[in-house]
């Protein structure tokens, strides 16, 4: 990958400038030892070189090696946004985010690798920025190269990165129009895949707004302020409003083919294009149908 800058500022070491642009120390080492190049005013320099106002800096990174463990799986992708740095796709329910031992190579990562090969992307390494549970649908972000990945990783747990879900939950008691669930989440000792509210767990914060509700169900727009595994499912089960179809966190799961959860909205700063991205994915047919049956007025 090729990156260029026109430097304006006080004298600075080249390595310090590149770290400001998002390069990690490990990435700078790769530039030196694995075939990358750094030029200042068309002359090759090392990271100790001092740069000044007016200097033109060019970085050519070493080719990225795609992991052999991710086997390409050609399949149509619902692409919601794409540029040279990021690919955002709408994941269907029932598809894993990444390959798992003992399962077929038909995860989103496998599909994205096939897409990168088909489109002759400069790097065919798969960088998964955000994941979703197998039975959760909605927006997933992939980076197209390591710098894009590391830059977005910095935003993931900050206010700059907004991630919102639509969930359909039971509502035997009314939900407020706006609420917060602040409960620590830990791993269940009896079943490592299950998470529980625990005093020894990690701090976890979920915000929600009630979009519609009846005496038995509610649709909520959920904003995550922390990123714990199964956070939405655990938090809503803990306050007595289990997600429809969630047989892991309800003793009496409400009939639906999967947990009724969809990542519907992402907003984040594209650090290389220097612009905000605001991306939405409509409610899938199965959740739209569930909302209609429950008489919850939601747009598909």
Automatic annotation (TrEMBL):
PROSITE patterns associated with the record: PSI_RLU (PS01129)
Source taxon at top rank: Bacteria
GO terms assigned for molecular function: catalytic activity, acting on RNA; pseudouridine synthase activity
GO biological process terms on file: pseudouridine synthesis; RNA processing
Residues annotated as domain Pseudouridine synthase RsuA/RluA-like: 85-238
Annotated active site: 133
Reactions the enzyme catalyzes: a uridine in RNA = a pseudouridine in RNA
Coiled coil: none
Listed Pfam families: PseudoU_synth_2
Database matches in SUPFAM superfamilies: Pseudouridine synthase (SSF55120)
Keyword entries, A-Z: Isomerase
Gene3D superfamilies per UniProt: Pseudouridine synthase
Enzyme Commission number(s) of this protein: 5.4.99.-
UniProt cross-references to InterPro entries, sorted A to Z: PsdUridine_synth_cat_dom_sf, PsdUridine_synth_RluA-like_CS, PsdUridine_synth_RluC/D, PsdUridine_synth_RsuA/RluA, RluA_PseudoU_synthase
Protease as UniProt keyword: no
Family: Belongs to the pseudouridine synthase RluA family.
PANTHER family, per the entry: MITOCHONDRIAL RNA PSEUDOURIDINE SYNTHASE (PTHR21600), PSEUDOURIDINE SYNTHASE (PTHR21600:SF35)
Functional summary from the UniProt entry: Responsible for synthesis of pseudouridine from uracil.
Identification of the protein by name: Pseudouridine synthase
């Amino acid at each position: 990958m090729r990156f260029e800058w026109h430097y304006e500022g006080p004298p600075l070491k080249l390595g310090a400038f590149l770290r400001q642009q998002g390069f990690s120390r490990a990435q700078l080492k790769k530039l030196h030892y694995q075939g990358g190049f750094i030029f200042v005013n068309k002359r090759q320099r090392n990271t100790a070189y001092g740069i000044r106002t007016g200097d033109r800096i060019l970085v050519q990174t070493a080719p990225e090696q795609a992991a052999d463990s991710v086997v390409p799986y050609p399949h149509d992708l619902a692409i919601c946004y794409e540029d040279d740095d990021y690919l955002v796709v709408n994941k269907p329910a029932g598809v894993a985010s990444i390959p798992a031992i003992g399962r077929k190579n038909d995860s989103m990562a496998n599909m994205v690798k096939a897409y990168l090969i088909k489109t002759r992307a400069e790097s065919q390494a798969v960088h998964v920025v955000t994941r979703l549970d197998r039975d959760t649908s909605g927006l997933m972000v992939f980076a197209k190269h390591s710098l894009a990945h590391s830059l977005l990783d910095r935003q993931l747990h900050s206010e700059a990165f907004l991630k919102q879900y639509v969930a359909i939950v039971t509502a035997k008691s009314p939900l407020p129009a706006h609420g917060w669930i602040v409960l620590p989440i830990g791993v269940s000792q009896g079943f490592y895949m299950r998470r529980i509210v625990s005093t020894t767990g990690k701090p976890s914060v979920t915000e929600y707004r009630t979009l519609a509700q009846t005496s038995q169900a509610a649709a909520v727009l959920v904003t995550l302020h922390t990123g714990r595994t199964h956070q939405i499912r655990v938090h809503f089960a803990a306050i007595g409003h289990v997600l429809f179809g969630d047989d892991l966190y309800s003793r009496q799961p409400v009939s639906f083919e999967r947990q009724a959860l969809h990542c519907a909205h992402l907003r984040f700063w594209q650090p290389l294009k220097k612009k905000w991205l605001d991306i939405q994915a409509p409610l899938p047919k199965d959740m739209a149908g569930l909302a209609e049956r429950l008489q919850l007025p939601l747009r598909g």
